[in-house]
Write a structure and sequence with these properties.
The chain has 249 residues and is of the alpha+beta class. It has one domain. The protein is 39% helix and 25% strand. The strands form two sheets. Strands 2, 3, 4, 5, 6, 7, 8 and 9 form an eight-stranded mixed beta sheet that branches. A three-stranded antiparallel beta sheet has the order 1-11-10, with helices on both faces. A hairpin with a 4-residue loop joins β10 and β11. The radius of gyration is 19 Å and the shape is globular. The chain starts with a helix and ends in a 6-residue tail after the last helix.
């Protein structure tokens, strides 16, 4: 009997977290992302963006716009969008803050490089500390290297992956980057709906997780799957870093 009680207690988080995700997680059908004029006022976010600037501007990138979003309930998301016109690569530096929190330690930052191709393929390389979508559409490939903080190393990996795609890379027209980025976010949510991870509630105008999506999101972020996933990704990353003659940092 005690064994069954202990087993039930051990399994409780694996059953409770999907229910919480199912009941609370929502994604807006129409993104509330809006452009920021005059720069980011928060010093910690501004300092993070300045650090990314120093690396990317020397590599031929230009800053396209700053933006802020309240698409995620209880959080504010700040973004800076970059474009390399020569290589046709875009990049997004983001800082996610929990509303009401002023502590710098509660800021989740991420840098992601994006490439879109004429054959409909999408390639994303990032260093997010948060678990991504457990399911991806066939035309989209994302790779996460949570332990790489150096923007140039992340860019080097992205350039390496581009070499495997035999298609012409595409960029939005100058001045249309914000709408392009908003449309890409909408397409990502629609793709998650198509493969069964999300359900669109037309009446409220939000996407919410399906039961399958909620369980996958929860288990994907919990031990042991999260631990195994990070170990495997780190091993693969070391192989790729050696191929492109880079060292992780």
């Amino acid at each position: 009997m005690w064994m069954w009680i202990l087993l039930s207690v051990a399994l409780l988080p694996y059953l409770a977290l999907p229910i919480v995700i199912k009941k609370t997680q929502r994604f807006q059908l129409k993104s509330q992302l809006r452009q920021l004029f005059g720069g980011v006022r928060r010093s910690d976010v501004g300092d993070y963006f300045s650090t990314i600037d120093k690396s990317l501007l020397d590599e031929g990138f230009r800053t396209a716009f700053d933006a802020v979003s309240n698409d995620y309930t209880g959080f504010t998301l700040y973004l800076r969008f970059y474009v390399s016109d020569q290589e046709k690569i875009s990049a997004v530096a983001s800082a996610l803050l929990q509303d009401g929190e002023d502590s710098e330690t509660n800021t989740k930052t991420m840098l992601e490089f994006n490439s879109f191709f004429s054959n409909g393929r999408e390639l994303l390389t990032n260093n997010s500390q948060l678990p991504g979508a457990p399911l991806e559409p066939k035309n989209r490939k994302s790779r996460t290297f949570h332990f790489i903080s150096n923007p140039l190393m992340l860019l080097g990996l992205h350039r390496h992956f581009i070499g495997y795609i035999k298609a012409q890379p595409l960029l939005p027209e100058s001045g249309a980057e914000l709408e392009f980025f908003k449309n890409s976010l909408q397409k990502e949510l629609a793709a998650q709906e198509a493969i069964g991870g999300l359900i669109l509630d037309q009446q409220s105008g939000v996407y919410r997780p399906s039961w399958a999506g909620a369980f996958l999101m929860a288990w994907y972020s919990m031990w042991p799957l999260s631990f195994v996933r990070k170990i495997l990704m780190k091993q693969k990353a070391k192989i790729w870093l050696r191929k492109v003659n880079l060292r992780s940092a």
